[in-house]
Specification:
The chain is α+β, with helices and mostly antiparallel strands.
């Protein structure tokens, strides 16, 4: 506050000369000045002040030309055209500048106010279609006299039939209805043409009018009044070609949702999937909880964490890689069935199936084991597919994209196939593995290295036994799992938090769920022996010292919790994003994340310029 008072005092002493008037476009550009460079408001490039002035002059010239052309009277023989039709041939830059000037003028005159505070909606577009759409409700070419409805939505298409009749497609909530604006129905017929010159594709409008049908039978609303609620300053992509560019779709998800109904469908399905998981677990008596996002130890999974810093405590903290340890501590405390749906963060690569932050659901169930959890997983996913498809247990998945010929027929009906890890590898590779209780030894490491080398399976350092086994599984077992299947019989060395197998020494009670060759869930009979857990943590610490960034450290608080007694417990985790991918026929995880991680846009000053959502400059 003292600094602010000081600055104000300085401003009084040194009064600048009165500024010259500045245009809207110049203001927008000056707001993004940075480190001696200027950002082009249209292209986003960082350029010199001289170059920016040159471009602005050229654009002004083009805009004036276009305005002049739009203002010229048409030939007597031709029907009068609206300025909106002329603007279709403008470049995006020209359109933006003309439209911005027009809206700025409306803001000055407030005739009308282009950004009103409120519009009373009497019925949603979806309900309007359901209420007035049924056959026989309104006859073709007629209106429901005496009935007035108020709709709001976004204009997508504009069609003029002379000066006195305009048609608009009004979109909202994934449905659309036609606006049939005729001069004779208008509240102010004398200004009908002038009022409708304010509307463009992409504008959000309010419509007050009467339910009607055209002579061709299309459900419409015949407005007495249309009100501009929020103008769109940019040209929408053409209705014919749509928005196809992936980069633009991911960086401008709002535009993707406006233009692509399929995108909307995916995210509605995602919401339904999460709601189904929540209801399924709630009905089984689980309690939903929340656990910390940051902690001093990154535990509960094998992954490289993000590091952040707590300024007040002057302490480095990790963003969580899994909520597992906290949830098991709650089971120790007597909350026998707990689950959490939330974000986790792993500082790993970005590819078609991985994003640095993603949504996970984990639950822990006292007095259950991996076999109970397997049955529960099959029931959950099969029921979810039936819920989404209206009773079917099959789905199609295109692994190379929706337009490709290659298609997987996924069958979710129970029971699912189960592949024993070591047994299946022995069968596929034609070798005999060392005894399972020796898979943690140096001799086993040598055997696994030679096996990977022989079959050209690449494994970067550190080549620990767990990583080598994981690579072999990825090469020879995961591709077998097209329809949902379980991989079981994991060696203990791969699962530091799972309980040892009750009948197979050296293995543990764990399963992973796979479909389309990719993991989507993971579960254990949880290790509840504090002595064994400490030994497992110490082994992980040794792997960390060997250079494995993904290995876990020792969490003394968790060991202390186990020393107070964790009942026999089954634990389970599922990647929501990947599950949504498979159930919506999406091959890229970015398709199912509203705001996926994106590389910054490369500009001359993107290291110091303003950064937007998703790391976009």
């Amino acid at each position: 506050m003292q600094r602010l008072i000081s600055l104000r005092s300085s401003a009084r002493l040194f009064r600048p000369l009165p500024p010259r008037p500045i245009s809207f476009i110049q203001l927008r550009t000056m707001a993004t000045e940075n480190a001696g460079t200027h950002k082009d408001p249209v292209t986003g490039e960082m350029i010199s002040k001289t170059e920016l002035k040159r471009r602005e002059k050229a654009r002004e010239k083009e805009a004036k030309k276009a305005e002049k052309a739009a203002a010229q009277p048409q030939k007597a023989a031709a029907a009068p055209k609206s300025s909106a039709a002329d603007e279709e041939n403008l470049s995006p830059n020209q359109y933006y500048e003309i439209r911005s000037r027009h809206i700025q003028k409306l803001k000055e005159t407030m005739n009308p106010n282009p950004y009103p505070h409120k519009f009373e909606v009497s019925i949603s577009i979806t309900d309007y279609v359901q209420k007035y759409g049924p056959e026989g409700k309104i006859k073709s070419g007629e209106k429901l006299e005496g009935v007035v409805e108020c709709l709001a939505g976004r204009i997508h298409n504009v069609r003029a039939s002379g000066q006195n009749l305009r048609f608009y497609d009004l979109h909202g909530e994934g449905t659309k209805v036609q606006i049939m604006a005729a001069k004779q129905d208008a509240k102010d017929p004398d200004n009908f043409v002038a009022n409708h010159e304010h509307f463009r594709r992409g504008d959000i409008v309010g419509v007050i009018g009467t339910p009607a049908r055209t002579k061709k039978g299309e459900l419409s609303i015949a407005p007495s009044e249309m009100i501009l609620l929020a103008p769109n300053l940019h040209q929408l992509p053409s209705a014919h070609f749509g928005l196809k560019d992936q980069e633009t779709r991911y960086r401008k998800r709002y535009l993707d949702l406006i233009m692509n109904e399929d995108t909307r469908r995916i995210f509605i399905t995602r919401s339904r999937i999460i709601n189904y998981v929540r209801r399924f677990l709630d009905n089984l008596g689980f309690l939903e909880v929340e656990t910390p996002m940051t902690s001093m130890i990154a535990g509960g999974a094998t992954a490289k964490p993000f590091i952040t810093h707590h300024n007040d405590l002057d302490l480095d903290l990790y963003l969580r890689i899994a909520p597992e340890l906290y949830l098991k501590e709650l089971v120790v405390g007597g909350l026998d069935r707990v689950y959490e749906i939330g974000r986790v963060f792993r500082n790993e690569g970005i590819d078609l199936t991985h994003n640095p932050e993603f949504t996970i659901c984990e639950f822990y169930m006292a007095y259950a084991d991996m076999y109970d959890i397997m049955d529960l997983t099959e029931s959950l996913v099969e029921g979810m597919v039936k819920y989404l498809t209206g009773g079917k247990t099959t789905l199609e998945y295109h692994p190379e994209g929706k337009g490709s010929d290659k298609v997987y027929q996924l069958e979710f009906k129970r029971p699912w196939p189960r592949y024993d890890m070591i047994g299946t590898l022995e069968e596929k590779l034609g070798v005999k593995f060392p005894p399972s209780d020796t898979l943690h030894t140096e001799e086993a490491n040598k055997f696994l290295r030679e096996l990977c080398q022989k079959h050209n399976v690449d494994c970067s350092e550190p080549r620990t036994n767990a990583r080598l086994l994981d690579k072999l599984v990825g090469e020879f077992i995961e591709p077998l799992c097209i329809s949902p299947a379980f991989i079981v019989g994991h060696p203990q060395v791969m699962s530091p938090l799972a309980k040892y197998h009750r009948s197979r020494p050296g293995l543990c009670e764990r399963f992973e769920g796979f479909m389309c060759g990719k993991e989507f869930c993971n579960a254990y009979t949880e290790l509840n022996d504090p002595f064994e857990q400490r030994l497992r943590f110490e082994e992980q610490l040794r792997q960390k010292e060997q250079g494995d960034d993904e290995a876990q450290g020792i969490d003394e608080t968790f060991v202390d919790a186990l020393e107070h007694g964790l009942p026999p417990t089954g634990g389970w985790g599922i990647g929501i994003d990947r599950l949504v991918m498979f159930l919506t026929d999406s091959t890229n995880i970015k398709e199912v994340l509203l705001f996926p991680a994106m590389k910054p846009i490369e500009t001359a000053a993107n290291t110091t310029g303003a950064v937007g959502p998703s790391g976009q400059v």
